[in-house]
Design a protein that fits this description.
12 helices; 342 residues; 14 strands; 8-stranded mixed sheet; 39% helix
């Protein structure tokens, strides 16, 4: 059944050096608009839901361009507002071989979204308009003003009986010198409000400060995630563990924990065309499966396949639909390689 799902977050301009060049080499940039919330809302719209963005865009031609681009992605922008002059942006240099990709952020703190007055959002009215809302730890890291807005909106949706989705997505560079200590209380507040959480054992160990005697990552996951679910009364927790192989192919182990049981799914080794945004594809797969009331095994297989496919297209935003993902999941299960569709 189609749901109304909103993402609360910043819309960013992606400025990409063509090919595999460096900023110091290039003379042109390709631009597009993205962000974690954009990626999730767009993917969910491709799965048959109505994906909204709750954000603030500049009230100028730059904001017009962003609005037009997001509408082309299938996102309903009726809950967005306009104000301010700036949009956050990042420069992308694509990695090759031993050189990793590099992202350089600029102008985020002055963006229209990050400087918007919380009073300009009507959180009660927004909560009445949607069935679920998605948040990201990157947004949580911006400033106290945005953090208050996140918590107010999450509480309003929760009170109305909607679902609150929180992707931990901890970024060390955004939290300053105090890092985990600064982030922990805000993460704990969001976890207490959340119904569906995206995280792995690293978040439990470092962000939440939990302890584990296990050394292997999967064993840590099995020990810590049930503790997180119990402590914060979370219905669903899901996440991935990524392996990067010497030949630069990747593989994903995906898991979902619900009703006190784990389900796992693997993605075959796959080549990576563009990695950015692939985690958001996995998130959207989990959200879709949970809200569609699929079985845990079906949900995690769908989400891992969605994440794998997102590595195969240019740009941040996932482009696959349900049919594409189901086919990819079937091929991954049979460990076969797809030929040309004719």
């Amino acid at each position: 059944m189609s749901k109304k799902i909103a993402s609360f977050g910043e819309v960013m301009m992606r400025l990409e050096v063509p090919g595999y060049g460096l900023l110091s080499q290039g003379s042109t940039l390709n631009y597009s608009f993205s962000g974690t919330g954009v990626n999730v809302a767009s993917a969910l719209s491709r799965y048959g839901h109505t994906g909204y963005m709750i954000t603030t865009l500049p009230d100028n031609p730059l904001g017009d361009a962003a609005l037009s681009y997001l509408q082309k992605l299938g996102i309903n922008m009726s809950l967005a507002q306009r104000g301010g002059c700036y949009i956050g942006s990042y420069f992308l240099e694509n990695g090759f071989g031993a050189r990793p990709s590099r992202v350089t952020y600029t102008n985020r703190l002055e963006s229209s979204f990050n400087t918007a007055d919380g009073a300009s959002y009507s959180f009660t009215a927004l909560a009445d308009s949607i069935d679920a809302v998605s948040f990201c730890g990157i947004t949580l890291a911006m400033n106290d003003n945005v953090r208050r807005q996140m918590k107010q909106l999450a509480a309003a949706v929760k009170q109305k009986g909607g679902n609150v989705i929180f992707d931990c997505n901890y970024r060390p560079s955004l939290w300053g010198k105090d890092g985990y200590e600064a982030a922990r209380p805000h993460y704990e507040e969001m976890l207490q409000l959340a119904d569906i959480v995206l995280m792995n054992e690293k978040d439990a160990l470092h962000v939440l400060g939990m302890q584990s005697q296990a050394e292997a990552r999967k064993e840590q996951l099995l020990e810590l995630i049930p503790q997180v679910a119990k402590a914060y009364h979370i219905a669903v927790i899901a996440g991935t563990q990524r392996t990067i192989h010497p030949d630069n192919t990747h593989s994903l182990l995906g898991y979902i924990y619900r009703e006190q049981a784990f389900s796992f799914a693997d993605a075959n080794r796959f080549a990576v065309y563009d990695r950015i945004g692939a985690g958001d594809a996995f998130t959207s797969g989990i959200v879709h499966g949970v809200l569609e009331q699929l079985a845990s095994g079906e949900i995690i297989a769908f989400a891992v396949a969605a994440g794998m496919l997102a590595h195969t297209v240019a740009g941040d935003t996932p482009m696959a639909n349900v049919h594409d993902i189901n086919q990819a999941a079937a091929y991954a299960m049979n460990q076969t390689v797809r030929d040309i569709e004719r």
